[in-house]
Amino acid sequence: MNPDYPIYIVSKGRWESRLTSKALEKINVPYKIVVEEHERDQYASVIDSAKVLVLPQEYLEKYETCDGLGGEKSKGPGAARNYAWEHSIASGVNRHWVMDDNIASFNRLNRNLMCKVESGTIFKVVEDFVDRYENLAIAGFNYDFFAKAKEKIPPFVLNTRIYSLLLIQNDLPFRWRGRYNEDTDLSLRVLKKGFCTMQFNAFLQEKATTQTLKGGNTDDFYS
């Protein structure tokens, strides 16, 4: 099974590693990848060009960084995430997935056993579960290193921050903002407005540790 809602990867400087892209292709899950204009050719040389979306410059120019630095340094992935949001609305769907570009695999945790999955069924399961509720604005997978197989943990946790891999309700009155910690900012605004978030432990993302992979925020911020 595959997800009903579109999946978007936002990526910069990682056409060689492209961990999330490879992970989705390995389990035959369709996706789009949002990149900046000057990197389109590099991505299109290693990914089916039909999957590559170019971030319109206007999204970068209008992006709210929540600081006074303007265009002095990279504005981070928020503008690309906003474009993915609008692109999904234009396709007529109620939700969309958006993911970072450094996720190596997707896992199922059940009865203290963590296994890499071989299909997109976990995305479909989450969609079916989330769609039961009217006030569940954002859902996502926990990081595998925060969900230890040897510990007793619930299948999901309500009303916490959702990082790196998110299923977002499209009609929310928010958009991404901030140069740093934009995942935390969006989660907090959603909760303050009275919506709920849901972080799954039953389904996990194997995400590369911050600063261990070239490209993205590693080069732009953390260096």
Low-confidence stretches: none
Number of strands: 10
DSSP summary: helix tally:
7
What's the helix-strand series? Answer: EHEHEHHEEEHEEEHEH
How many distinct folded domains?
1
Structural class: alpha/beta
Distance between the termini: 40 Å
Radius of gyration over alpha carbons? Answer: 17 Å
CATH superfamily: Spore Coat Polysaccharide Biosynthesis Protein SpsA, Chain A
The CATH class assignment is: Alpha Beta
Notable characteristics:
single chain, 223 residues, alpha/beta, Spore Coat Polysaccharide Biosynthesis Protein SpsA, Chain A, 27% helix, 25% strand
Written description of the protein model:
The chain is an alpha/beta fold and about 220 residues long. It has a single domain, classed as Alpha-Beta Complex (Spore Coat Polysaccharide Biosynthesis Protein SpsA, Chain A), CATH 3.90.550.10. Helix content is about 25%, strand content about 25%. The protein contains seven helices and ten strands. Strands 1, 2, 3, 4, 5, 6, 7, 8, 9 and 10 form a ten-stranded mixed beta sheet that branches. Strand 5 (about 105-110) and strand 6 (about 115) form a beta hairpin. The model has no long low-confidence stretch (mean pLDDT about 95).
